[in-house]
Specification:
41% of the residues lie in helices and 26% in strands. By secondary structure, the protein is α/β, with parallel strands linked by helices. Helix 2 links the parallel strand 2 and strand 3.
């Protein structure tokens, strides 16, 4: 089961991710606004650090879907790769 968070404003996605801690281990972010890819990647990293039970964050932006898991974060180039895919 996923916790759906729709992001429509410029507020911190990290706050939305933190809201889901304790509810579910999988979060679906529906990005309905422009959001800085690097900032988003950093906030997702923090979410995984703060939530040891987190399994996956799915990001939907227009016609794209990105998946971030703990394994994804292990890559030392995670932020650069995420930014490239998010802005593609």
């Amino acid at each position: 089961m996923y916790d759906l968070k729709t992001v429509q404003g410029k507020s911190s996605i990290l706050n939305r991710l933190i809201e889901s801690i304790g509810q579910t281990n999988h979060v679906l972010l529906n990005i309905a606004t422009d959001y800085n890819a690097r900032l988003l990647a950093l906030q997702i990293q923090k979410y995984f650090e703060w939530n040891p039970n987190a399994g996956q964050v799915l990001i939907f932006k227009k016609n794209k879907m990105l998946s971030v898991t703990r394994q994804t974060l292990d890559d030392k180039n995670f932020i650069a790769q995420f930014t490239r895919l998010y802005n593609k």
